[in-house]
Design goal:
Helix content: 25-40%
Radius of gyration: 49 Å
Low-confidence stretches: 270-277, 293-335
Shape: elongated
Oligomer: single chain
Number of strands: 14
Mean pLDDT: 76
Largest sheet: 5 strands, antiparallel
Strand content: 15-25%
Structural class: alpha+beta
Order of helices and strands: EEEEEHEEHEHHHHHEEEEHEEHHH
């Protein structure tokens, strides 16, 4: 088991963990700790806690010692020097005509270097600026470009709610915020109303997002029918904060929207199906009836007629063996009903059904030849073009 503490180097800055196994500290004390920038002065914001060393992702740096009055005084002097360095750097930026905005200046505790934080729309060539600053301060110079959210955190200010901004008062880390959160919370999508002083989405949208997500899972969706104490109706709107549901109830030709608590709303059960389910069931029954009509009607004995795709495409009814003989006699004189979709052959009533002899056939052939001779004699008087067309038509009829 190891003992750790939480230390902040800036007001409302990020908290860092250090190993304090050898030193007893408490909240509010100032300590000198080893950092990547060298020794630095920080304030203890989280007291000593015992944590299993196996849970540490990376080995923690140790606390060197408790800060004395001289260390605290040296830190205060550095704060004064930072204000002077800020003014000097602004003048140098104006002289070099660089498009950058200086945000903050930070002195190292051991006065080994100075950090200048600035914002810019793009990349800035500040090599000449660094040379001028190094000649003035006679120490190492570092320039770091930061984002607009970090700028608001360092400078502070008042939010749209009238209170100090969250990142400048108590937030030590930025949480991801998306426009989806504003949609789920039914907020106006006007950028000026959901943006903070930094111009980005407000961090406070993250606070209530979990409550909205959990509450929406319990509440019905808009458009679904629900059962209320006054009847059944569709949901028109939801109030997530109050956990109430707005339902449209119809009474004859009039309709009314009423608000009900979530406890008084129930979903339609199996016994009280919604109108959509009833329509769906009615549609299935109609489809079954249509399929029965195509398959065939039931006979008196409860048997369905079976279709037989034989040579004559006739329908044969399957009935009991005792009635087969009677049905055969009754069906002799009846016309055969064609199946659905099959072509119907119709006979000419004027046509004689008696068989023709060979002599009749020969007489008809001679009669047809005489008609053809008459046609040829008539066409001979026609023009040569019409005569050629007639001969071609006769040749085609003979080939057939």
């Amino acid at each position: 088991m190891g003992r750790i503490i939480g230390v902040q180097f800036q007001e409302n800055g990020k908290m860092y963990y250090f190993d304090s196994s050898d030193i007893e500290v408490k909240t509010g004390d100032y300590v000198i700790v080893d950092t990547a920038r060298g020794n630095d002065l920080g304030e203890v914001v989280m007291g000593t806690r015992e944590v299993d060393e196996e849970n540490w992702h990376t080995p923690l740096k140790k606390v060197i010692r408790l800060a004395d009055e001289q260390d605290i005084k040296h830190g205060q002097e550095n704060r004064v020097k930072e204000k002077e360095a800020f003014g000097i750097c602004q003048k140098k930026i104006a002289e070099h005509k660089l498009e950058m905005k200086l945000v903050s200046v930070e002195y190292a505790f051991d006065n080994s270097k100075i950090l200048f934080f600035f914002t810019a729309n793009g990349r800035v060539d500040f090599r000449s600026l660094v040379k001028d600053l190094a000649s003035v301060f006679k120490m190492r110079i570092e320039l770091r470009q930061i984002g607009v959210r970090d700028e608001a955190k360092m400078l502070g200010g008042l939010g749209p709610c009238g209170r100090p901004i969250c990142c400048g008062s108590f937030l030590d880390q930025f949480q991801p915020v998306s426009i989806k959160m504003a949609k789920e919370q039914n907020l106006s999508l006007n950028p000026t109303k959901i943006s903070g002083v930094c111009g980005r989405l407000m961090c406070c949208l993250k606070y209530e997002q979990e409550h909205y997500e959990m509450t929406r899972k319990k509440m019905p969706k808009i458009g679904r029918e629900v059962i209320t104490p006054d009847g059944i109706g569709p949901v028109t709107d939801l109030n997530i904060v109050k956990e109430t549901v707005f339902v449209r109830l119809t009474n004859g030709d009039t309709s009314e929207i009423k608000e009900y608590p979530l406890e008084n709303i129930t979903k339609p059960s199996d016994g009280n199906m919604s109108q959509e389910q009833n329509k769906k069931n009615n549609g299935e029954e109609r489809n079954e009836q249509a399929s029965d009509a195509f398959a065939g009607k039931k006979n008196q004995n409860g048997m369905r007629e079976k279709t037989d795709d034989s040579e004559n495409d006739e329908t044969v009814s399957l009935q009991s063996t005792g009635n087969n003989d009677n049905n055969a006699e009754n069906n002799k004189g009846k016309a055969r009903k064609p199946l659905l979709g099959q072509p119907v052959r119709r006979e000419n009533p004027k046509r004689s059904h008696e068989p023709q002899s060979k002599e009749d056939i020969q007489e008809k052939a001679e009669h047809n030849t005489e008609k053809e001779r008459q046609n040829t004699s008539e066409t001979s008087t026609l023009s040569p073009w019409a005569d050629a067309l007639q001969k071609a038509m006769q040749a085609i009829s003979q080939d057939k």
